[in-house]
Protein backbone atom coordinates (compact mmCIF):
# COMPACT_ATOMS: atom_id res chain seq x y z
CA UNK A 1 0.00 0.00 0.00
CA UNK A 2 2.78 2.44 0.95
CA UNK A 3 4.68 1.68 -2.28
CA UNK A 4 1.54 2.33 -4.32
CA UNK A 5 0.99 5.70 -2.63
CA UNK A 6 4.59 6.73 -3.30
CA UNK A 7 4.22 5.85 -6.98
CA UNK A 8 0.94 7.80 -7.15
CA UNK A 9 2.43 10.96 -5.64
CA UNK A 10 5.55 10.73 -7.81
CA UNK A 11 3.37 10.48 -10.92
CA UNK A 12 1.18 13.36 -9.75
CA UNK A 13 4.19 15.63 -9.24
CA UNK A 14 5.70 14.70 -12.60
CA UNK A 15 2.52 15.60 -14.47
CA UNK A 16 1.27 18.39 -12.21
CA UNK A 17 1.80 21.06 -14.90
CA UNK A 18 0.97 19.00 -17.99
CA UNK A 19 -0.45 19.44 -20.50
CA UNK A 20 -0.70 23.13 -21.42
CA UNK A 21 -4.01 22.67 -23.23
CA UNK A 22 -7.47 24.20 -22.96
CA UNK A 23 -10.63 23.85 -25.05
CA UNK A 24 -13.46 26.33 -25.51
CA UNK A 25 -16.24 25.52 -27.93
CA UNK A 26 -14.78 24.02 -31.12
CA UNK A 27 -11.28 25.42 -30.50
CA UNK A 28 -8.49 23.59 -28.69
CA UNK A 29 -5.49 25.73 -27.74
CA UNK A 30 -2.16 24.02 -27.07
CA UNK A 31 1.12 25.64 -25.97
CA UNK A 32 4.63 24.37 -26.65
CA UNK A 33 7.87 25.79 -25.32
CA UNK A 34 11.20 25.02 -23.71
CA UNK A 35 11.42 22.59 -20.81
CA UNK A 36 13.74 25.00 -19.00
CA UNK A 37 15.33 28.42 -19.39
CA UNK A 38 18.95 28.89 -18.36
CA UNK A 39 19.69 32.50 -19.39
CA UNK A 40 18.08 35.85 -18.76
CA UNK A 41 17.80 38.40 -21.56
CA UNK A 42 17.67 35.72 -24.26
CA UNK A 43 14.48 35.26 -26.28
CA UNK A 44 13.20 31.68 -26.48
CA UNK A 45 10.39 30.48 -28.79
CA UNK A 46 6.94 29.59 -27.53
CA UNK A 47 4.22 28.48 -29.94
CA UNK A 48 0.44 28.36 -29.67
CA UNK A 49 -1.39 25.78 -31.80
CA UNK A 50 -5.07 26.39 -32.53
CA UNK A 51 -7.13 23.37 -33.61
CA UNK A 52 -10.63 23.85 -35.00
CA UNK A 53 -12.81 20.77 -34.53
CA UNK A 54 -15.86 22.20 -36.29
CA UNK A 55 -16.69 22.51 -39.99
CA UNK A 56 -17.03 26.30 -39.88
CA UNK A 57 -14.11 28.75 -39.65
CA UNK A 58 -13.20 30.08 -36.20
CA UNK A 59 -11.94 33.64 -35.75
CA UNK A 60 -10.45 35.30 -32.71
CA UNK A 61 -7.28 36.64 -31.11
CA UNK A 62 -4.62 35.20 -28.82
CA UNK A 63 -2.08 36.82 -26.53
CA UNK A 64 0.52 35.67 -24.01
CA UNK A 65 1.12 37.01 -20.50
CA UNK A 66 4.04 36.56 -18.06
CA UNK A 67 5.15 37.84 -14.65
CA UNK A 68 8.18 39.45 -12.97
CA UNK A 69 9.04 41.81 -15.83
CA UNK A 70 9.49 39.00 -18.36
CA UNK A 71 8.86 40.10 -21.97
CA UNK A 72 6.64 38.71 -24.71
CA UNK A 73 6.93 39.33 -28.45
CA UNK A 74 4.51 40.12 -30.01
CA UNK A 75 3.36 41.92 -26.88
CA UNK A 76 -0.28 42.41 -27.90
CA UNK A 77 -3.09 40.32 -29.34
CA UNK A 78 -2.57 38.36 -32.53
CA UNK A 79 -5.65 37.79 -34.69
CA UNK A 80 -6.28 34.37 -36.20
CA UNK A 81 -8.66 32.52 -38.51
CA UNK A 82 -8.69 28.73 -38.44
CA UNK A 83 -10.58 26.98 -41.21
CA UNK A 84 -12.89 24.06 -40.47
CA UNK A 85 -11.12 20.88 -39.38
CA UNK A 86 -7.78 22.65 -39.66
CA UNK A 87 -5.01 23.86 -37.34
CA UNK A 88 -2.92 27.00 -37.20
CA UNK A 89 0.25 27.84 -35.29
CA UNK A 90 1.26 31.25 -33.95
CA UNK A 91 4.81 31.91 -32.79
CA UNK A 92 5.91 34.07 -29.86
CA UNK A 93 9.15 34.64 -27.99
CA UNK A 94 9.58 34.87 -24.22
CA UNK A 95 12.51 36.60 -22.52
CA UNK A 96 13.32 36.06 -18.84
CA UNK A 97 14.14 39.29 -17.01
CA UNK A 98 17.33 39.93 -15.10
CA UNK A 99 16.88 39.17 -11.42
CA UNK A 100 14.64 36.14 -12.02
CA UNK A 101 14.92 33.30 -9.52
CA UNK A 102 15.44 29.59 -10.04
CA UNK A 103 11.81 28.56 -9.88
CA UNK A 104 8.81 27.51 -11.98
CA UNK A 105 7.41 30.40 -14.01
CA UNK A 106 3.99 30.45 -15.72
CA UNK A 107 3.42 31.54 -19.31
CA UNK A 108 -0.28 32.23 -19.89
CA UNK A 109 -2.10 32.10 -23.21
CA UNK A 110 -5.51 33.76 -23.62
CA UNK A 111 -7.45 32.85 -26.76
CA UNK A 112 -10.61 34.87 -27.40
CA UNK A 113 -13.09 33.47 -29.91
CA UNK A 114 -15.66 35.52 -31.81
CA UNK A 115 -19.16 34.66 -30.64
CA UNK A 116 -17.89 32.88 -27.50
CA UNK A 117 -17.95 34.55 -24.09
CA UNK A 118 -15.44 32.16 -22.57
CA UNK A 119 -11.68 32.38 -23.07
CA UNK A 120 -9.33 29.44 -23.59
CA UNK A 121 -6.54 29.76 -21.02
CA UNK A 122 -3.78 27.14 -21.15
CA UNK A 123 -0.75 27.71 -18.91
CA UNK A 124 2.76 26.56 -19.76
CA UNK A 125 5.06 26.12 -16.74
CA UNK A 126 8.76 26.64 -17.44
CA UNK A 127 11.53 25.79 -14.99
CA UNK A 128 14.41 28.27 -14.73
CA UNK A 129 17.95 27.16 -13.93
CA UNK A 130 20.24 30.18 -13.83
CA UNK A 131 23.91 29.94 -12.91
CA UNK A 132 23.83 32.95 -10.56
CA UNK A 133 20.27 33.59 -9.37
CA UNK A 134 19.69 36.37 -6.84
CA UNK A 135 19.40 35.43 -3.19
CA UNK A 136 16.14 36.30 -1.42
CA UNK A 137 16.32 39.19 1.02
CA UNK A 138 15.42 38.34 4.61
CA UNK A 139 12.77 40.57 6.14
CA UNK A 140 14.53 40.35 9.52
CA UNK A 141 18.25 39.87 9.94
CA UNK A 142 19.28 36.74 11.84
CA UNK A 143 21.64 37.55 14.72
CA UNK A 144 22.32 36.57 18.33
CA UNK A 145 20.81 38.62 21.14
CA UNK A 146 22.71 39.49 24.34
CA UNK A 147 20.64 38.75 27.43
CA UNK A 148 21.97 39.74 30.90
CA UNK A 149 21.56 37.37 33.84
CA UNK A 150 18.26 37.33 35.70
CA UNK A 151 16.43 39.20 32.94
CA UNK A 152 13.33 38.28 30.97
CA UNK A 153 12.98 38.72 27.20
CA UNK A 154 9.59 39.18 25.53
CA UNK A 155 10.05 37.51 22.15
CA UNK A 156 7.02 39.25 20.65
CA UNK A 157 8.72 42.62 21.12
CA UNK A 158 12.07 41.60 19.66
CA UNK A 159 12.55 42.28 15.95
CA UNK A 160 14.54 39.10 15.29
CA UNK A 161 11.78 36.94 16.76
CA UNK A 162 8.80 38.94 15.50
CA UNK A 163 9.04 37.38 12.04
CA UNK A 164 8.23 33.97 13.53
CA UNK A 165 5.38 35.63 15.48
CA UNK A 166 5.89 33.92 18.83
CA UNK A 167 4.56 35.63 21.94
CA UNK A 168 5.78 33.77 25.00
CA UNK A 169 8.66 31.49 25.96
CA UNK A 170 9.36 29.12 28.83
CA UNK A 171 12.49 27.36 30.00
CA UNK A 172 12.88 23.72 29.07
CA UNK A 173 13.74 21.99 32.39
CA UNK A 174 15.64 19.23 30.56
CA UNK A 175 18.18 21.52 28.92
CA UNK A 176 19.25 24.60 30.83
CA UNK A 177 19.36 27.67 28.64
CA UNK A 178 16.93 26.37 26.01
CA UNK A 179 13.59 28.08 25.49
CA UNK A 180 10.35 26.87 24.01
CA UNK A 181 8.40 29.35 21.86
CA UNK A 182 4.65 29.70 22.15
CA UNK A 183 2.56 30.88 19.21
CA UNK A 184 0.03 33.68 19.62
CA UNK A 185 -2.87 31.28 19.35
CA UNK A 186 -1.48 29.06 22.07
CA UNK A 187 -2.32 29.57 25.72
CA UNK A 188 0.52 31.35 27.57
CA UNK A 189 2.47 29.54 30.31
CA UNK A 190 2.06 30.38 33.98
CA UNK A 191 5.19 32.52 34.05
CA UNK A 192 7.79 33.87 31.68
CA UNK A 193 11.14 32.15 31.49
CA UNK A 194 14.38 33.58 32.83
CA UNK A 195 17.63 32.58 31.15
CA UNK A 196 21.10 32.49 32.64
CA UNK A 197 23.58 35.04 31.35
CA UNK A 198 24.51 34.23 27.79
CA UNK A 199 22.91 34.51 24.37
CA UNK A 200 19.39 33.75 23.24
Q: What does this protein look like?
A:
The longest helix is centred in the first third of the chain and has 13 residues, at 2-14. This protein has two domains: 2-128, Immunoglobulin-like (Sandwich), CATH 2.60.40; 146-199, no CATH class. It is mainly beta. Strand 1 and strand 2 (27-32) form a beta hairpin. It has two helices and 15 strands. Residues 5-15, 160-186 and 188-200 have low confidence and may be disordered. The protein has helices spanning 2-14, 159-162, and strands spanning 21-24, 27-32, 36-37, 43-52, 58-65, 71-73, 78-82, 87-95, 104-113, 119-120, 123-128, 146-147, 166-171, 179-183, 198-199.
Give the topology, please.
Layout: H1 2-14, E1 21-24, E2 27-32, E3 36-37, E4 43-52, E5 58-65, E6 71-73, E7 78-82, E8 87-95, E9 104-113, E10 119-120, E11 123-128, E12 146-147, H2 159-162, E13 166-171, E14 179-183, E15 198-199
Parallel strand pairs: 3-11
Antiparallel strand pairs: 1-2, 2-4, 4-8, 5-7, 5-9, 6-8, 9-10, 9-11, 12-15, 13-14
